[in-house]
Amino acid sequence: MNKFIKGVKDFLKEEDGLTTVEYAVAGALVAATVVLAFTNLGGEVCKSIDSLSNAIASDPVSSDCPQ
Fold first, then answer.
1. Which of 34, 41, 47, 64 is deepest in the core (most CB within 10 A)?
2. Nearest to 28 by CA among 18, 20, 38
3. How far is Cα 56 from Cα 45, in angstroms, rounded to an integer?
4. How many domains does the chain have?
């Protein structure tokens, strides 16, 4: 029984698991930032392409870009 309690105490003192959680949180923040950046960038690219196509076309077309 003493070995079990010592094992639990050693496990709680161990900090290797904490670094794994920190990497997971950092990775999630990076992924969220990338998704947000590409979402905003995609909308701007769509607007630019629509603007160019309307400048070239004889009759303007409606935009399919998300608002």
1. 47
2. 20
3. 17
4. 1
